[in-house]
């Protein structure tokens, strides 16, 4: 799927599933969203690894989409860091419940992965949360300020 179609689909899914903090998406145009969203996984991971993780966990792509925008807007506070990671888990649960019936094992797998990813971000993501963003949107702002 090309990038713009993917972003359009993620926006649609965030509304369909009524995910928490989906309003944050409206602050950015499509090109900015393409630059901010990197799939599931931190910027420090090579692109092939993020692509592999995203392919293995397609249900959580929309959750990671909102999470990436939140991290792009990081204020470097502990409170918002924890809130973003907790929201990842809640949004992941919401997606799992919306996509799969209670009897479907995939529902429980997606919920478990959302919990795991949220916990991993909480345990190991602080340095990324407090580092300056290097996406094209931020680079453009920095260049414009010079």
Which properties best describe this structure?
146 residues
Word description of this protein:
There is one protein chain. The protein is mainly α. The chain has one domain. The chain is built from eight helices and no strands. Helix 1 (3-16) packs across helix 2 (30-36), helix 4 runs antiparallel to helix 5 (78-99) and helix 5 packs antiparallel against helix 6 (105-124). The chain is globular, with a radius of gyration of 15 Å.
Structural class: mainly alpha
Rg, Å, rounded: 15 Å
The level of helicity is 55-70%
Largest sheet descriptor: none
> How many extended strands?
0
The 3D shape can be described as globular
Question: Gap between N and C termini, in Å?
Answer: 36 Å
The averaged pLDDT comes out at 92
SSE series: HHHHHHHH
User: How many helical elements?
Assistant: 8
